[in-house]
């Protein structure tokens, strides 16, 4: 009788998948589900709803300015970082208390958005959209902090991948739920039902407990000392590191093309004559499968190539993916073209989600997790969202979809160039809060 080799293929496979079934990565999956769904309610789903109501392109794309609230979430992140929910935080912990309170706000805001009617006037829709954006951004603050503090450094890559799985599952499933229910039950019932997607994060927080790596703030400070501790200290900690300004420039520019393109896809699908059922299948269901595969491949690339080279691979893939939508726009209503464009875009986004989110997470000092990640994640899309909200609709009308998506590909090049310079100069690790693990 011979003992089975510890390097047998089945043992290597089990060792590879075991980290995905540990409590913290599973919690990251559930947290991602709740993080993704509010975004979907005011992104592609609202775009479809407004386009169906006959709202013009400039007004529809202007709604993407609501996403800038996500970009300014670092302004109130210190409140969630340091503030404590009276009585409740003492009973269940600071992070878990905020999870429950903000989940309730998210559910109320999403339900409100579902109950307003765009045909009756855009004022109430704007107000409800801003409410969803604010509540969703606030939810992201505590969700990101909970995730980072729950994961050990060794779990960072796996946890980032699981978070991306969850985010896409949440946004896709909620988006599909709304589209399918709206077809038969109306938009109001669809949105109210989708609000239940806020609950997985609360359930995960309840099961896993308060993060063990959460550094509890000391005695409450007042006046200037409180402002310094909550706002200035996190920023000074990051910006005072070697290479921080270059890292910030990369974060600002790396996602411009991807963000501008993504926020216009539903306009393209509507103008090409795709039905809600077709959009639900290709953009939501097929897109989810491609994204899941992309995250899996991204995890392999991350483990084989290391964080830095994985980020570079993802940047190139995300830039090239925009060309596929130029091809779809040129081809017209084509199921094969839509499947190819959506599949490739989601596949590359999945790869990028693992590498880039892991890098942003690694940049955070555990003393200021919520505030620093809010700043970094907000910076990663603010330029693209501003361009989308102010000029995307007008650009599409002026130059057409084909040239527009080719332009978004060009917009991705500065981010790639900055990261290449950081790689060649050995500057990628300089902005990390401590010496990185071997890459």
Describe the structure.
- With about 450 residues, the protein is an all-alpha fold.
- The chain is about 75% helix and about 0% strand.
- The chain is built from 22 helices and no strands.
- It has helices at about 10-15, 25-40, 45-50, 55-60, 70, 75-80, 90, 95-115, 120-150, 155-185, 185-195, 200-210, 225-240, 245-255, 255-260, 265-270, 275-305, 305-330, 335-360, 370-380, 380-410, 415-425.
- Helix 10 packs antiparallel against helix 17, helix 15 (about 255-260) crosses helix 21 and helix 17 (about 275-305) packs antiparallel against helix 18.
Keywords:
single chain, 439 residues, mainly alpha, Growth Hormone, Chain: A, 0% strand, disordered C terminus
- In terms of DSSP E residues, the strand content is under 5%
Decide which structural class fits the backbone: mainly alpha
Terminal CA distance reads 40 Å
Overall, the morphology is globular
For the CA atoms, what is the radius of gyration? 21 Å
Number of domains: 1
Helix content: over 70%
CATH architecture group name: Up-down Bundle
Query: What is the CATH first-level class name?
Result: Mainly Alpha
Question: Mind describing the biggest β-sheet?
Answer: none
Element-level helix/strand string: HHHHHHHHHHHHHHHHHHHHHH
Low-confidence stretches: 1-6, 435-439
Overall mean pLDDT stands at 80
CATH homologous superfamily designation: MFS general substrate transporter like domains
Write down how many β-strands occur, each being a DSSP E stretch of 2 or more residues.
0
* CATH fold-level topology: Growth Hormone, Chain: A
Helices, by number, come to: 22
């Amino acid at each position: 009788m011979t003992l089975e080799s510890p390097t047998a293929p089945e043992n290597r496979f089990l060792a590879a998948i075991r980290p995905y079934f540990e409590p913290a990565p599973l919690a990251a999956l559930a947290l991602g589900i709740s993080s993704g769904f509010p975004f979907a309610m005011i992104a592609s789903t609202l775009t479809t709803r407004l386009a169906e109501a006959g709202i013009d392109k400039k007004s529809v794309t202007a709604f993407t300015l609501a996403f800038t609230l996500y970009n300014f979430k670092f302004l109130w992140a210190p409140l969630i970082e340091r503030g404590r929910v009276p009585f409740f935080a003492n009973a269940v912990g600071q992070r878990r208390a905020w999870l429950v309170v903000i989940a309730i706000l998210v559910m109320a805001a999403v339900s409100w958005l579902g109950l307003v009617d765009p045909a009756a006037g855009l004022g109430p829709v704007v107000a409800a959209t801003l409410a969803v954006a604010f509540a969703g951004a606030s939810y992201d603050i505590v969700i990101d902090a909970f995730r980072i503090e729950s994961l050990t450094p060794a779990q960072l890559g796996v946890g980032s991948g699981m978070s991306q799985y969850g985010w896409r599952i949440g946004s896709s499933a909620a988006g599909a739920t709304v589209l399918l229910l709206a077809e038969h039950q109306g938009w109001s019932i669809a949105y109210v039902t989708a609000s239940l997607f806020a609950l997985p994060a609360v359930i995960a927080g309840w099961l896993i407990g308060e993060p063990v790596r959460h550094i509890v703030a000391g005695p409450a400070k007042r006046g200037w000392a409180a402002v310094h501790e909550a706002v200035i200290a996190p920023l000074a900690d990051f910006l005072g590191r070697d290479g921080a300004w270059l890292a910030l420039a990369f974060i600002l520019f790396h996602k411009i093309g991807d963000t501008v393109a993504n926020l216009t896809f539903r306009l393209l699908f509507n103008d090409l004559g795709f039905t809600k059922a077709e959009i639900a299948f290709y953009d939501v269901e097929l897109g989810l499968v491609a994204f899941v595969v992309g995250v899996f491949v991204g995890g392999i690339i991350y483990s084989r190539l290391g964080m830095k080279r994985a980020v570079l691979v993802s940047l190139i893939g995300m830039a090239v993916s925009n060309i596929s939508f130029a091809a779809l726009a040129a081809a017209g209503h084509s199921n094969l073209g839509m499947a190819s464009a959506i599949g490739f875009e989601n596949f590359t986004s999945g790869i990028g989600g693992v590498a880039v989110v892991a890098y942003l997470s690694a940049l955070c000092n555990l003393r200021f997790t919520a505030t620093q990640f809010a700043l970094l994640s907000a910076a990663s899309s603010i330029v693209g969202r501003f361009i989308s909200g102010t000029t995307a609709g007008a650009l599409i009308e002026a130059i057409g979809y084909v040239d527009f998506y080719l332009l978004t590909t060009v917009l991705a090049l500065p981010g790639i160039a900055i990261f290449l310079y950081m790689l060649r100069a050995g500057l990628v690790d300089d902005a990390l809060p401590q010496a990185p693990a071997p890459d």
